[in-house]
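Q: I'm a student working through a structural biology exercise. My instructor gave each of us a protein and asked us to get a predicted structure, then write a short paragraph describing it. Mine is LuxR C-terminal-related transcriptional regulator. I'm not confident about reading structure output yet, so if you can add a plain explanation after the C-alpha cells, that would really help. Here is the sequence I was given:
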Amino acid sequence: MTADTGPVLYGREAELAAVSQLLCPKSAPPGIERVVRVTGGPGEGRSVLLARAARDFPGEAYTVDPPRRHVPWSGARALFTALAPSGAAACRAARLARGTDGIAAALAACLTGRGPVLLCLDDFPLWDAHSRAAFAAHWRAPGARGTVRVGWLVAAAPGRPLPAADAAPLVRLPRLGRASARALLRDATGGRAGPAVAERLLDEAAGHPGVLVEAVRRLAPGVLAGTTPPRGRLVDDAVLTTVYGGLLGALPVDGRRLLGVVARACGAPDPEGPPPGDPDRTDVRTVLALARSLRVPTETLDGLVAAGLLHLRDDELAFPEPFLRRAAVHGGDATRTGTRTRTPDRYRDEEQGQDREQEQDREQGWGREPKPAPDRTVRPDRTVRPDHDRVQARDREPARERTRLSGAGAAASGLPDRHERHRADRLGPPPAVRARSAAARGRTLVTRGFAALASGPVMDAHEAFLQAAKVLRDREPAEAADARFLAMEAAWAAGDVGACLAALDLAPAAPGTERAFADGLRAALTVRPDRARARLAPVVAVGAVRDEPRLLLRAGSAALVLGDVTAAARLHGRALARARAEQRTSLLPRILEHLAYAELRAGRYARAGHTAGEGLRAARATGQPNSAAHQHAVLALVASVTGDGSSVAEHAERALAIGRPHGLAQAVTLAEWALARAELGGGLAAQAAARLAPLVRPGPRGGHFALRMLAVPCFVEAAVASGRVAEARGATEEYALWSDFGIDRTAPAQLARCRALLARHGEETSRWFGEALRRHEDGGNDFERARTLFAYGTWLRRRRRPGEARGPLRDALVTFERAAAEGWARQARAELRATGAPGARPPEPSALADLTPQQQRIARLVADGATNQEVAARLTLSPRTVDHHLRGIYARLQIRSRVELSALIAGAGPEPLSWTGPGPGH
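A: Happy to help. First, here is the predicted structure for LuxR C-terminal-related transcriptional regulator. I'll explain a few features afterward.
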C-alpha cells in the first residue's frame, strides 16, 4: 500500500470496475441507495477490494470493521460513530425510542443532506443480529432519500448470504489468472524467485493470492532462488493453516473438529457405494460413523453447510475447494483436540488395562479421566483382589510344584524357566474369581458412565453403560438392565434415536415392568403411539404405588413420553421427596432436572424456574455440570416468558457452553428455543425464525427429536411475521400429523392457532381462533391459552375492531400477570391501551406515590438519563438489583420504556417523588 496509489490489486480490475459501476451508475438519480455484495474466501483480497473501492469513491467513504457479534446493537453503534462524533448518543436514543425501526429512521436522517456516501461493511454476517435487522429495515424502507446518493458495499465469505439484501447484485472474487498471479509473485519476491521455483509456486498456489504470498514468506532464500532443493510441497500444510486459520479459529470447537472429521473422511471408501474418486467429497454416513467413533458431536454439521464451508447434495458432503479440506485436516483434526478412539480390548483386563490407559494418557497428553465417586462396592482393589490373594495362597504349593516340574522339562528342552512360569501364569485365576472380576469390571464401567453422564460427553457415558451391560448380562442381569436404561438416558440427552434403540435391546429374561418400559420407549421412538401408550401406561400405574426413587424416575419418564405432564410432575415430586429422605444427594440434580422439565411442559413457568434454580444449586454442589446445563436451559426459557432478556442470554450462553462440547442436544435445543422466544418478543421475528428453523427440521441434523414438534408453534408465529409463510405451512402440516397422536394435550389448540395465523381470509382466521380457544378449555395450559387470546385480540385490533379486541386482551393480561409472564403482560397492556380501553390509558403522575422509596430513587435517576450501571454506583446496589427494581416500576406504572417513565415524572411537577437523597441500598 502506498500513499499515492492506495492498495495494490492484482487481477481484480474487472471486479473493481463492476463494483464502481454498480455503486455509481451514470444514470442513477439522487435519492437512492445501492447495496452491492462482495464475496471472497480467506486471503482472496476481499478486504483489499473494499479499501480500494473506498479510496476511489468520489465522495465520503467509511470502512467499518466487524464489531463484537454477541453484543446487541454494537454494529449500529460503530457505524453511527463513524458517521458522526455524536453518533453513539444518537444510536442509543433511537434504539431506546423505537428499537429496530428507530435505528433505521435515525440512519436515514443521518445520511440525508450529505454528499455521496459509501459505507463499506466487511464480514457482515458476523455482525450482531440487532444491527443487521435494523440495516435491513433501512434498505427495505420505501420512499425518497432526499438528494443524497448512498452506496453500501457489504462483504461476506462465500456461502454466507445477506438475507436482507438477496436482490442486491453480487460480485464474486475468482482465483487469479496466471499472468496476475505471476505479477503478484514477482512483486512479493522482488524478482528473486528462480524460474523453476516460480512455476512450481504458481502451480501449487492455483491462483490463490493469500496462499501464494504466505508460501513465499515461508520459503528460505536458497529454496526460493532454486539453489537448495525443497523438502516436500512449497504450499505445505503450515501455509494453508496460516491462511485459513482465522476462518477455522472463528468456528466453535465442535465445528472445527467436525470439519476435520469430514476432511479425513473424504476419499474413504463407501461400502455401499462406488469406489472413491473425488478426494474433496464423501458420504454423510461415512462422516457420521467416523464422528461417532471419534466422539465428535455432529450438531454443527448444518451450520457448516449453511456457512458454505461444506456443500451437501444427495447425501454427499463436499468441500468447496481443496485448500480448505487440507487446512481442515490439520486445523480440526479430532485426534489433536483431546479425543481418542475406544479400542475393543480396552476393557479386556481391568486391573492391568487401567494402568495401561493411564500410561497412554500421560504419553499422549490426554490428562486424567474424571475421578469416579467413592463407592466401595465397585472398586476392583477392594472386591476382587482379596479373593484373588486367598486363591493364590491356597494354590501356592501346587503352583510351586508345577514350576519345579516345568523347570525340569525346560532343562531337558533347553528353554529358560521363566517361559514356563509365564505359561503357567496365563492359566489365570479359577472361574469363580474370574466371575467376580468381571462383575467388578462391569461396576467400574458403570461408575465411569456416571462420571461421564455428570460432567463429560454423554455419548461416552452411553458407551460405558453399554459395555457394562454386556459384561454384567450373564452375571448380574438386574444391574445389566439398569446399565442399559442409563445408556438409553445418555443417548436421549444426546438426541441419538439409533443409540436409544440399541440401548433398549434388553435380554428376553427382563422382568415384566422393565420389558414394558423398554417396549413402550421403543414404540415411541419408532412413532407407534398406540403401542407406546399400551405399554407405558402400566409403568406409570406401577410407579404410582412404588417409593423407590429409581422406579419413580422411570415411571415419571414414561408419563412425560405419554404427554401426561401432571402425572410426571407428581411422580418426580415423590421421587424428590424420597431421595431427600434417604439423603441421596447425588440423585437430586437428575430428579430436579426431570421435574423442572415436567413443570415447563405444563406451562407452570414460575414453578419450573424455582425447581430449576434448586436443581442448579444441587448440580453445582455435587459436581454435575451436565445437569447444570439443562437447568440453565430451563431458566433461559422461563426468562424468555418473564421478559428478562439479560437473564435469557446469560442462562442460554452457559447452557450452550456446556451442552455443545458435551453433546447435550436436549439442553442445546431448549437454550436455542429460549433465545428465539426472546428475539420474537423483542420484535426480531426474522432472527427468531432463522434460529428456530434448524430446531424444527427433521432428521439427524435437526433439533432434539423429543422437542422438535413442541417448538413448531413458536416457529410458525415467527415465520409468519417474517414472511416465511411457505415454511410455516409445511411445519404446520407436519405438526397436524403429530397432534393426531394425542400425546400432547395442548397440541390441538396450538395447531388451530397456527392455522389462524396462516389463514388468508378474515372469516377463516376468526373461525380458527374460536376453535383454538374452544380446544384450550381441555388443554390445561393457561399460558398457551393466554397467548392465543393475545394473538386473537391483536388481530381484532388491527382489523379495527377495538371493542371486540378488549375482552380477549383483558383475559390474556390477567393470565399473563398470574403466570408472572411480565414480558407478555407488557405487550398485552400496550395492545389494550391501543384499543382505548378504560383503565388501560397511561397512568397519572399521582401513581408515582405508589412506588416504594427505593423505586422512587431509581425512577428519578433513570428519568434523568442515568444508565443501570450509573444508578447502581450511585445507590450502592448491583446492576441486576437495579434492573429488577426497574422491571417492578414498569409493571406497577404499566409503562414499557424509559421514555414513558421520563415523560410521566416530568408531568408530575418539580417534586413528584418523596426524594430524600441517595442512601444505602435496602
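A: Here are two points you could use in your paragraph. The chain has a mean pLDDT of 75. The domain at 437-656 is CATH 1.25.40.10 (Serine Threonine Protein Phosphatase 5, Tetratricopeptide repeat). It's a good idea to check both against the output above yourself.
Q: Great, thank you!
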